[in-house]
């Protein structure tokens, strides 16, 4: 019997990053949806977007589910899911974390990134009219998509939007997440160089307890650059 997946994107992105993956999941007998955070659609007002607004949007999607789902998060969505899952735990049968930031209780994402990166993004947000971090081509090409083709880099940059700054700087209460009894998997794209070696798996080991680990080839944007390989890994991650 097929599963229903709720796929949650990271910073600057939207549900569009999962478009091809959703088609492949449906071809394999599953169903899926990929909501976009408030503030992450083109032309949308971003100035008043808080972290709680983002989390509440994910919780609302979960509470509308008729049956428990497989909840999947990418990158910054890791700690969004840490905050959201305790509020709708009965709607989740398994969680899958795909190269995600996972936070200790009371920490923000910028507490875990290299200081020079946090400083650069903070300066960009302060210079923006709506306290959001613009899409920075060098960051996409040289950090998130190192080694990917220019065609794929251009395609991602064309769709990304400025990210409301609160996502990066809000301390997150993650202790309730630790108390959940929901099976967890980690889908790890092992060629991801957006953080130092071992960082993503180190966060998973520190914050998730026991988990099912599936490693696949690819970098931070594998769901976009190689959706076939990503979906194959995702299905392997839900025993």
In terms of topology, how is this protein built?
Layout: E1 4-8, H1 19-27, E2 31-33, H2 51-63, E3 69-75, H3 77-84, E4 92-100, H4 115-126, E5 132-133, H5 137-144, H6 150-159, E6 163-164, H7 166-169, H8 175-178, E7 184-189, H9 199-207, E8 212-216, H10 222-225, H11 227-236
Parallel strand pairs: 1-2, 1-3, 3-4, 4-7, 7-8
Antiparallel strand pairs: 5-6
Helix pairs in contact: 1-11, 2-3
Short description:
The protein is α/β, with parallel strands linked by helices. The protein is built from 11 helices and 8 strands.
Could you characterize the architecture of this molecule?
The chain is an alpha/beta fold and 239 residues long. It has a single domain, classed as Rossmann fold. Helix content is 38%, strand content 16%. The strands form two sheets. It has a six-stranded parallel sheet, with helices on both faces. Helix 2 (51-63) packs across helix 3. The two termini are 13 Å apart.
Which features would summarize this protein structure in a list?
38% helix; globular; six-stranded parallel sheet; Rossmann fold; alpha/beta; two-stranded antiparallel ribbon; 8 strands; 239 residues; 16% strand; 11 helices
CATH architecture: 3-Layer(aba) Sandwich
Outline the biggest β-sheet: 6 strands, parallel
With strands numbered from the N-terminus, the spatial order across the biggest sheet is 2-1-3-4-7-8
Q: What distance separates the N and C termini?
A: 13 Å
| Number of H/I helices | 11
Q: How much is the average pLDDT? A: 96
Give the tally of structural domains: 1
């Amino acid at each position: 019997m097929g599963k229903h997946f709720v796929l949650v994107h990271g910073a600057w992105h939207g549900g569009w990053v999962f478009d091809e993956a959703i088609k492949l999941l449906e071809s394999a007998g599953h169903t899926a949806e990929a909501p976009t955070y408030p503030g992450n659609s083109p032309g949308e007002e971003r100035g008043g977007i808080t972290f709680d607004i983002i989390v509440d949007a994910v919780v609302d999607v979960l509470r509308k589910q008729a049956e428990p789902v497989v909840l999947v998060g990418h990158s910054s969505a890791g700690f969004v899911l840490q905050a959201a899952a305790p509020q709708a735990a009965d709607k989740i049968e398994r969680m899958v974390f795909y190269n995600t930031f996972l936070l200790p209780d009371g920490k923000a994402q910028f507490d875990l990134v290299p200081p020079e990166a946090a400083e650069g993004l903070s300066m960009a947000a302060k210079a923006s009219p709506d306290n959001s971090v613009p899409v920075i081509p060098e960051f996409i090409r040289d950090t998130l998509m190192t080694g990917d083709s220019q065609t794929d880099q251009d395609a991602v940059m064309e769709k990304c939007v400025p990210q409301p700054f609160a996502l990066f700087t809000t301390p997150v209460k993650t202790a309730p997440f630790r108390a959940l009894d929901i099976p967890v998997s980690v889908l790890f794209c092992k060629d991801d160089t957006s953080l130092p070696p071992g960082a993503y798996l180190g966060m998973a080991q520190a914050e998730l307890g026991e988990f099912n680990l599936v490693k696949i080839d690819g970098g931070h944007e594998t769901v976009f650059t190689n959706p076939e390989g990503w979906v194959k890994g995702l299905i392997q991650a839900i025993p």
